Structures are given as C-alpha cells and as structure tokens.
Amino acid sequence: MSETRIVVDDLSDPRIARFLAEHVQQMRSLTPPESKHALDLDALRRPDVTFWSAWEDDAVVGCGAIRRLDARHAELKSMRTAPTRTRSGIASRLLGHILTETERLGFTRLSLETGAADFFLPARKLYEKFGFDYCDPFADYRPDPNSVFMTKAL
User: Fold this and answer.
1) How far apart are CA 75 and CA 73, in angstroms?
2) pTM greater than 0.70 (yes/no)
C-alpha cells in the first residue's frame, strides 16, 4: 500500500472535483434537501475555508476541511473517505491531521454537523474516538432530526 499524503488543496485538480461531486451526490441521496449541509466546490473555495485532500499515488482517498466561524471557533466540513477505502484508517489519519492543523492555526474549538441516520454511525463513532462531544446546534444551524452536532475543545 502506498503512503498517504495529506496536502492543503486548492481544489483545481479535476480528480478532487469529481471526488467532491460524488460526496455531494451521496449526501443528497441520504439526506432531505433542507437538512443537507455539504459544501459544493465553489463554497469550499471561499477564503474562510481550508481544504485538505489525502492521496495515495494518483488517487484521492479522502478529504476534509475547516470553515472559520470566528477567531477561535472552526467547523469541520466535507469529511469523506473513498468508498473503496472505508475502514482502512484514512479518516483517522485525516482527522488527526486536521485537528493538529486547526489548533496550529489558533482555533480553540472545532465543531461539526453530521447525519443522524444509521449511515453516519461510523462517522459519529470516529468523532467520539477523537474526543468530540455531542452539543446543541451552533453557528447558523437549527435543531433538525436529521442532524447531530458535536464539538471539541482544542
């Protein structure tokens, strides 16, 4: 197996664009439109977002991002592992990297929204493993039976 490289990504590579399009399509198939919070490519290019991609050789195997909410609080966005690589440690390596970088950037809290459906259980377990606690909606989110909110002090 090749070494996994995690890099800050400028979102210009068509392979990452396809990877993200698949992510948004999958989220739309699982979540009602009013509960879908996945960012599209244009939203991920905003200056308040830092995006990382994980690569093995020439293949995208994962991604994740943070969106700045304020000077101390960021939101985890767009966490995805390639379907062929789930349960292989990619998500753990990527999340660990993002947590380190988020703290290095001066943030003291990282929060996230994920799905409440069974499909999202592995993601919730991953976040729990990394010390995220369940919390009330944050930022512009509202209570939603399809959403779960989690946060972690850094």
Assistant:
1) 7
2) yes
Counting the structural domains of the chain, the total is 1
Express each pLDDT in 10-32 by its tens digit.
999 999 999 988 877 777 767 77
In terms of residue numbers, what domain contains 68? 4-153
Maximum distance among all Cα pairs of the chain, rounded to whole angstroms: 42
* CA–CA distance, 97 with 11 (Å, rounded to integer): 18
DSSP annotation string for 67-104: EE-SSSEEEEEEEEE-GGGTTSSHHHHHHHHHHHHHHH
Q: Quick one: tokens of 60?
A: 């995208």
Q: What is the pLDDT of residues 28-53, one digit of tens each?
A: 767 776 777 778 889 999 999 999 99
Which CATH number fits the domain that encloses residue 134? 3.40.630.30
Angle at 27 between CA 24 and CA 33, to 5 degrees: 100
